Write a sequence for this structure.
């Protein structure tokens, strides 16, 4: 029996196995499933300390049907560089070296190793799954936590906006930078495919709503992910050799009238329940300023 619709795009082989240790509704299994399908399982995955260290399961078993190396928080990109050098020394060229790291291990603790690997131009695919806090250690704020969000270390709401790591990576002049969302798997799949065919360091920043840390029902992960894009809070784009392009639903959202009110996204999450009207306005103004900047980028 043939698969319906867009499902025909994806290979049938599964590399994220049943029975893994993710929480109900966790975006990690969703995102990594499509990443490994796009790479057809030809990958060595480096995972720094993060939720995925638990999802994979305890040694000597693993829920992932690819080689995995668990490594210290700060060292994922450096470790991937070493693996790549070893593969090249052995003449092995048909395996992708992939870093799969959370926002804590990318935006904060791991950014120095990531920057170094980008400077060296190592042929790595680096994917940050961004659940916007240190979820594995108790929901502490990270540099990726958005303004106004509750965490256990920002109980009255964070007062700073997210760090824009994709823009930082664009400044490294690497071949490929993209954002993606677990709510739009075809867009994610196509971006990983594209990255796999390019040389040099490729960076993908994946929006990954966390039911536990964001305080929403586990069955609403995809709804929350899609609303982030549809409200303009999360923008899908890619930068190929410096050329910026909107992708997926974001391509039609330059006109503010096409975006849903950000309140639809915020109301689904208990982490935003203490926002004042002024806080919502601050977030809306921030989103609008992002889109104004994007408009200027497209005019270049």
């Amino acid at each position: 029996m043939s698969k319906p619709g867009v499902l025909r795009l994806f290979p049938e082989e599964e590399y994220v196995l049943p029975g893994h240790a993710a929480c109900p509704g966790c975006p990690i299994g969703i995102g990594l499933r499509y990443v490994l399908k796009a790479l057809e399982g030809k990958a060595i995955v480096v995972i720094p300390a993060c939720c995925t260290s638990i999802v994979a399961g305890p040694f000597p078993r693993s829920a992932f049907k690819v080689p995995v190396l668990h490594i210290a928080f700060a060292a994922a990109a450096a470790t991937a560089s070493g693996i790549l050098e070893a593969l090249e020394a052995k003449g092995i060229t048909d395996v992708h070296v992939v870093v799969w790291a959370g926002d804590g291990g990318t935006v904060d603790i791991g950014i120095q190793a990531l920057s170094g690997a980008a400077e060296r131009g190592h042929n790595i695919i680096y994917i940050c799954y961004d659940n916007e806090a240190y979820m594995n250690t108790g929901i502490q704020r990270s540099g990726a936590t958005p303004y106004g969000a509750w965490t256990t270390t920002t109980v009255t709401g964070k007062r700073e906006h997210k760090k824009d790591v994709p823009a930082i990576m664009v400044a490294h002049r690497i071949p490929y930078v993209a954002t993606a969302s677990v709510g739009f798997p075809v867009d994610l799949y196509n971006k990983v495919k594209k990255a796999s065919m390019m040389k040099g360091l490729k960076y993908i920043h994946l929006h990954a709503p966390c039911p536990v840390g964001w305080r929403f029902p586990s069955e609403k992960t995809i709804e929350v992910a899609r609303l982030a894009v549809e409200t303009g809070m999360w923008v899908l784009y890619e930068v190929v050799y410096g050329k910026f392009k909107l992708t997926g639903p974001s391509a039609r959202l330059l006109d503010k009238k096409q975006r849903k009110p950000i309140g639809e996204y915020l109301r689904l999450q208990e982490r935003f329940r203490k926002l004042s009207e002024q806080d919502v306005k601050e977030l809306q103004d921030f989103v609008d300023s992002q889109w104004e900047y994007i408009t200027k980028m497209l005019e270049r």
User: Anything to note?
Assistant: The chain has one domain: 12-299. The mean pLDDT is 95.
